[in-house]
Amino acid sequence: MPKPRNDIAANTLEFEEQALIAPTGFREYDARWWFGRLDSNKPPQINLLGIQALGFGLGTLIHELDKTPAIVVGHDYRSYSLSIKQALCLGLMRAGIRVYDIGLALSPTAYFAQFDLDVPCVAMVTASHNENGWTGVKMGVERPLTFGPEEMGRLKDIVLGDEGIERPNGSLVYERGMRDRYLADLAGEKLNRKIKVVAACGNGTAAAFAMQALESIGAEVIPLDCTLDYSFPRYNPNPEDMTMLHAMADAVRETGADLALGFDGDGDRCGVVDNTGEAIFADKVGVMLARDLSARFENAVFVADVKSTGIYAMDPVLKANGATTDYYKTGHSYIKRRTNDLGAIAGFEKSGHYFFRPPIGRGYDDGLVTGIAILRMLDRNSGMSMSDLKDTLPKTWGSPTMSPACADEVKYDVVAKIVAQYEAAFAAQEQILGQVIANVVTVNGVRVTLEDGTWGLVRASSNTPNLVVVVESPTSEDNLRAMFADIERRLAAHPQIGAFDQKL
Q1: What is the DSSP string of 32-60?
Q2: How many CB atoms sit inside 10 A of residue 24's CB?
């Protein structure tokens, strides 16, 4: 096969005969490309031959890293994901890899299969919460971890440099029954009381898993968009998106449910709406879980991403329980690895990724394990509702994750300029909201904290052509909005930045 190119037009002879791969699809910890849609004029960034080249490169890297040449492969529920997976498998087999195809799967089902089958490597075909037309692959060679920048950089070099090495003994095993084994593994001790929960799946892959998983522990489940439909007729399955959260809130109010749990397109994230119909952002749910876990495990260590609430650091209950929290880079691969390296009981991301280590989970992000952990927390706090538990937290005003458009080719340069601007403001003791900047953290973009604890974050998205903006204030909604206004004003000076997906 000729060396992959980045300049092949769709609906041409070349497109059928040569590999198309946009270099920008190789991201910090997974791969994500626009595959295309018939109703879109946006040119594709990868074709099926490009996916084959990706599999060939991944197989070559597995050998290069001296890993056992065997891999678990699954795919999410999109109209084209099966064909993507089959092309990926062809490339892997060409590199001499034994492929265990587990069929339709959640990302955590694929991670579970690594343990169940005793197979070290994984490649999950999914675009997660991205809109239809996107595809991608989450990869790893060391359970329960997934690739970070070093592995992704080397994979990019192999694939784009046509450094793949053909090897014999590649094969394919159709491993059926993994869904049932995964669900059986989730089932455990029954809840002590009947909890009524709305399970929202946005017609994504979790629709084939969530109801059964939650019912297996004795919950009364009310389905919301729990039929598989790869057109996603109501909204993208993304529990960080306000459209999905509003649908969950409406369902709670209509049914009198105790809470709603929402799952994203590949089931590795979980969102929560409480019994009053109010969304609880995932970082605050993480604090609630941390309180619950720190009461059960002495000197518990937690990890939270830099988008997350400052409550972890100041919560009196966590302090009294002897718990500590480490703030680290945003990204499922980063938090997963950090949680494992520190021996933390759990890691939390504002996006809704939760990472539970033994005895609760195996260290990877699993939305259903998270949902079950939330139900068990509620069960242990008999007589308290989700809103009661939320109301015991220190009061803060926080934003959802907001994502202004910014092309992959320029987003890191733009963020570097924003970082430099805030660092200069800090050095000059410039005031924001009439306050001096208390500190500036640049471990992942820039997190600017003012004297009263109000903070704002700007970073580049790791998997979409966007920036990420989050703000929070422990003092007032006015300060929350003023902090966002300061960030928005600075972003407006950069013409490369487009419209926000949502705002305060």
Answers
A1: EEE---TT--SPPSB-HHHHHHHHHHHHH
A2: 16
Question: Which residues pair with residue 459 across a beta bridge?
Answer: 468
- For the stretch 135-173, pLDDT in tens is 999 999 999 999 999 999 999 999 999 999 999 999 999
pLDDT bucket at 314, cuts 50 / 70 / 90: confident
Q: Give the CATH number of the domain where residue 490 resides.
A: 3.30.310.50
Distances (CA, A) of 411 to 24, 27, 297, 310, 461: 11, 12, 41, 26, 8
* Amino acid in the structure at residue 216: S
SS (H, E, C) 379-422: HHCCCCCHHHHHHCCCCCEECCCECEEECCCCHHHHHHHHHHHH
**Per DSSP, what are the bridge partners of residue 221?**
197
User: What's the chain's average pLDDT?
Assistant: 95
Domain membership of residue 419 (yes or no) is: yes
**Domain tally, the chain:** 3
Do 426 and 386 fall into the same domain? no
Instruction: List the Cα angle 144/146/149 in 5-degree steps.
Output: 145
Q: Alpha-carbon distance 362 to 495, whole Å? A: 44
Shared-domain flag, residues 256 and 271? yes
The average pLDDT across 216-224 equals 98
